[in-house]
Amino acid sequence: MLDANLKQQLATYLTNINKSVELVVATDQSKASTQLLSLAKEIEAMSPFISMQESDEANARKPLMSVRGESSQIDFAGVPLGHEFTSLVLALLHTGGHPIKLSDDDIEAIKSIDEEIHFESFVSLSCQSCPTVVQALNMMTVLNPKIRHTMIDGALFQDEVNDKNIMAVPSVFANGETFSQGRVEIADILKKLDTGSNEKAIEKLNQKSTFDSLIIGAGPAGASAAIYSARKGLKTGIVADRFGGQVADTLGIENFISVKATEGPKLIAQLEEHVKDYDVDVMAGQRVAELIPGNPATIVLENGAKLYSHSVILATGARWREMNVPGEQEYRGKGVAYCPHCDGPLFKGKKVAVIGGGNSGIEAALDLANITDHVTVLEFDDKLRADDVLVQKANATSNITIIKQALTTEVIGDGNKVTGLRYTDRATDESHQIELSGIFVQIGLVPNTEFLPEEINTNPRKEIIVDAQGKTSVDGIFAAGDVTDVAYKQIIIAMGSGATASLGAFDYMMRLPAAQKAA
Questions:
Q1: Is there a single domain that holds both residue 114 and residue 205?
Q2: Sequential DSSP letters for 318-386
Q3: Same domain for 34 and 53?
Q4: What is the CATH number of the domain that holds 45?
Q5: Cα–Cα–Cα angle for 445, 446, 450, rounded to 5 degrees
Q6: Strand 288-292 relative to strand 280-284, pairing
Q7: What Rg value do the Cα atoms of the chain yield, rounded?
Q8: Distance between CA 260 and CA 267 in Å, rounded?
Q9: How far apart are CA 391 and CA 398, in angstroms?
Q10: Dist CA 500 CA 506 (whole Å)
Q11: Phi, psi (rounded to 5 degrees) for 190
Q12: Given its phi and psi angles, is residue 304 left (phi above 0), alpha (psi -120 to 50 degrees) or beta?
């Protein structure tokens, strides 16, 4: 089931187990059941603390593997490989007594939950964001015996996906009711459960002393800026909704110099560990609502807390551009999607559309063609903007149709899910309708600059204008990465610009009068 290299790595990890772990496997006659049983037997053979037994429970989802400890049970409905293999490894380690890496405040908040909660998370094994949710819920399960979690591979349990009208992953249910959709961290889950952790977090944030350099955003640019700032001896902090930004949702990376190939989640995990090697105050799970220039600058968070810093580095990146047509918001997560790798498996055997004929759009179409019944690509221009090699592959794929000069005008649905879309042929001005189940929007990115004050100059695309040192139009405020007017949006360029902005901020700090630094 596992190759020799993966077996060796897993066996090494499992030496950290010091408590008994029981694997209980429920199977049927499917190929996936055979794979899961084989996986469970291989894991059992790797540690004297792990035992396995088969279950004949009639009502269990099948295939299903339960990881059971002294007072916890984590269920994997499906075969937890792909992006979820790490989730399985961590479930084994944490159930087996290996310490959980969470803050004392988070652990206390989780243990204080005093209600029975059964979480169910629907995922796809190709989803890069899903493991974050799965692992968070698994850790909560180990820490609190009142909590139980079941991960469900939506591709294997299509009937449940259809019954619950799930059209985006990760989708989380708590005691049968919708709880969340999309990537969420521990902090987000605790806020939704109203454990009082949010009030404690606000109080803790308000008590922080003034930073020398505060970075807003924790993608490649933000991580780079934080490392360079800390190495210069500045009191450094990062505030961000999540670590990784768009890169966390990137599947394959093959142009990061010195690394032949990697994946977004893996690269981000390495960046986060690198940042944590330094004295950097990482404040994740926080969104910035307002930036007030000054010395120090004031950073107002959405929860009402305020932070202060002598210099600020904006590394907020960009997000997927939306179509801005009727029906898009109504059916977001109900057929309108932005991540083909994450949500594609939910549309197996169905008809879908991809909006956009650039590299992202054509790559998405090629990926979806292997899963879905048919893919229609709609491109606004009279020619595709993707690389020739991708266009040739798409043209040679029998279940891909490409329509050029197509202006999408409306997303159509039945109130619960997408059923089609309308577009106008720009050459003839005729309106057309396509029946389909999913729409994947791939039309570029828009910078995250809505919260910025007018004093910070931006270009017509709302990107922050910076000079060669990463300076903005406001003293003490710098910017880096995809949020700026840098010509090319690449990971390696974002990292370089993060270093540049950080060095620019350091130079600015060194030139500040002593009285201002002490303010």
A1: no
A2: EEEPP---TTTTTTBTTTEES-HHHHGGGGTTSEEEEE--SHHHHHHHHHHHTTSSEEEEEESSSS--S
A3: yes
A4: 3.40.30.80
A5: 160
A6: unpaired
A7: 24
A8: 12
A9: 13
A10: 10
A11: -65, -35
A12: left
The answer as to whether 329 is a domain residue is no
For 63, the token pair is: 């295939």
133-177 residue pLDDT tens: 999 999 999 999 999 999 999 999 999 999 998 999 999 999 999
End residue of a domain, out of 172, 195, 218: 195
In 3D, which of 202, 232, 196 has the Cα closest to residue 307?
202
325 inside domain: no
User: Quick one: tokens of 511?
Assistant: 């030139």
Q: What is the pLDDT of residues 458-487, one digit of tens each?
A: 999 999 999 999 999 999 999 999 999 998
Nearest to 85 by CA among 126, 47, 120: 126
Q: Which residue type does 33 have?
A: S
**AA letter at 50:** I
**Which residues span the domain enclosing 417?**
336-441
In the prediction, which pLDDT does 3 show? Answer: 85
What is d(CA 356, CA 377) in angstroms, rounded to the nearest whole number?
A: 7
Same domain, 388 and 279: no
Q: What is the pTM for the complete model shown?
A: 0.82
Chain CA centroid to CA 53, Å: 35
Residue 125 in any domain: the answer is yes
The count of domains in the chain is: 3
Do 506 and 226 touch, CB atoms closer than 8 A? no
409 touches 378 (CB < 8 A): no
CA distance 409 to 424: 7
Q: Rounded to 5 degrees, what angle do the CA atoms 35, 38, 39 make?
A: 85
Q: CB burial class (10 A; 0-12, 13-18, 19+) of residue 143?
A: buried
Distances (CA, A) of 246 to 88, 187, 359, 469, 495: 24, 19, 16, 24, 14
- On whether both 164 and 25 belong to a single domain, the answer is yes
Q: Residue 481 has what DSSP assignment?
A: G
